[in-house]
From TrEMBL, chains A, B:
Protein name in the entry: 3-hydroxyisobutyrate dehydrogenase MmsB
Alphabetical keyword list: NAD, Oxidoreductase
One MF term in the entry's GO annotations: NAD binding
Biological process (GO), any one: organic acid catabolic process
Active site, per annotation: K177
Record-annotated 6-phosphogluconate dehydrogenase NADP-binding domain positions: 9-168
Length: 291, 291
């Protein structure tokens, strides 16, 4: 499918913090856009700018050439794709569906297989870069599925992100995102322990950050979340509860692959302790509270 | 003490991979340099370029205005400073000693206290940036001790490094380096697990790196050691055995401060397992072998 703002109708499902910005970029690029999300009011701003509201996934799917979704949990993805009112039963033959939710690689493979029977192409294309990346259209997008379909959809990805990489067959985008979350998980423990140590040792932790942030200990987490930890700014860029969802998918997937991940296990345990303390709606930097 | 290449005699103890490059930069900057190290042959190149060999710490200390050391372990530092033939007994009143070994913060405080009684000033100034940072004079240097002494010695630090930060009273340089190593420790687990997951999931791990290296999972370790892991290049930039030394100091120090560091503990356990497999002289990226 050759896409262009002139002839391609885009349907967008899920207008959360991420989806709202991403759909906005698509609209701004001149595509005809219809939207659906659980809470109607979340669509108001986009509708004012020209998006068309659809009151069901069924209608949205039937009226779109490309259907993009970014919702909460794998069970939400399964629902919008597999229900009788969902994408697979209602999208036209030849349409493309792109799930950008961080979700289960096995589910992505299942959706790809079932959609093929319906003549629909599915890509799994989770993102990294958070609310800021979504707002600035600088998301990293990791894509799994048929490569020609990826190539066709590239102009659309470029409207939302910067570092857009084809990773392989269906599920590969999700697997890549899991690798991403696994690297972050144990890394966050290191960041918290290092800054907690600096404080306990009587150092000025901001000065410590200026020493260690640029060298071999440097990381996105240390340099971006470290300063928030030190200011006790635990406002969510990325929710603790969503990170736990991702770590759970990753841990299950690693177990299925026969891979031992003690760092991931430790991180998940610590984050679950954080939830026990009532912090599930904090940002992931709230892990610092435990130290 | 105002220092300058014209009037300041530098003594350098410890010509390992790091020290050899650092001493070379001092010599190249025009300072009179004398050197001592355990293995005489390690000094040959520098002596050819004009450095003067000293066959004991005693002689080196007695003939230097500023004495720099970067040796292996805290016990080596204690020996060159505290022995009857060592720095404190033999350096002239008014001289400055700078220990750049990654060593024990408590030892650094002890050396500072004892040197003060002798009229000698001591700084603890461990570095980060590895062999490459030493060679290119881009080391990060974290300094503890009296601030006016730090200010006096700044021109000398600038010959060896780039990101040079005064961190506070004696021991603060070492504490900062410990925070650095603590951040690296758990982070390395995340890097290994992420790349091992990518391989097990059938992805091309180099392509995965191109997706995850620049975003929220990005870190110096992932981007610099990740590619070496994937090529099974375990040659030492930074030795496993030295990292274990650092983690041991950090863990002891954290315990003394009453700080729980489960990520550091896990990393230390895994690296010790690596040593059990005979990998103590590999580079730290060899942790990947366990996954």
């Amino acid at each position: 499918m050759q896409i262009s703002p002139e002839k391609t109708r885009i349907g967008f499902i899920g207008l959360g913090v991420m989806g709202h910005s991403m759909a906005g970029h698509i609209l701004d690029s001149g595509y005809a856009l219809c939207v659906h999300t659980r809470t109607r009011a979340r669509a108001d701003g986009l509708v004012k700018k020209g998006a068309v509201w659809m009151d069901s996934v069924r209608k949205l799917a039937a009226n779109s050439d490309v259907i993009i979704s970014i919702v909460g949990y794998p069970q939400d993805v399964a629902q919008i794709y597999l229900d009788a009112d969902g994408i697979l039963e209602n999208a036209a033959t030849g349409s493309v569906a792109i799930d950008m939710t961080t979700s289960d690689p096995a589910l992505a493979r299942k959706l790809a297989a079932q959609s093929r029977e319906k003549g629909i192409q599915v890509l799994d294309a989770p993102v990294s870069g958070g609310d800021l990346g979504a707002r600035n259209a600088t998301l990293s997008i990791m894509v799994g599925g048929e490569e020609p379909v990826f190539t066709d959809m590239l102009p659309l990805f470029q409207v939302m992100g910067k570092n857009i990489v084809y990773q392989g067959p269906a599920g590969s985008g999700q697997h890549t995102k899991m690798a991403n979350q696994i690297a972050i998980a144990a890394g966050m423990i290191g960041v918290c322990e290092a800054l907690a140590y600096a404080k306990k040792a009587g150092l000025d932790p901001d000065t410590v950050l200026s020493s260690i942030g640029q060298g071999a200990a440097g990381s996105w987490s240390l340099n971006n979340l470290g300063p928030r930890m030190l200011k006790s700014d635990f406002a969510p860029g990325f929710y603790v509860k969503h990170f736990i969802k991702d770590m759970t998918i990753a841990a299950d997937s690693a177990r299925d692959l026969g891979l031992d991940t003690p760092g991931l296990t430790l991180a998940k345990t610590l984050y679950e302790r954080l939830v026990d303390n009532g912090c599930e709606n904090d940002g992931t930097q709230a892990l610092f509270k435990l130290f």
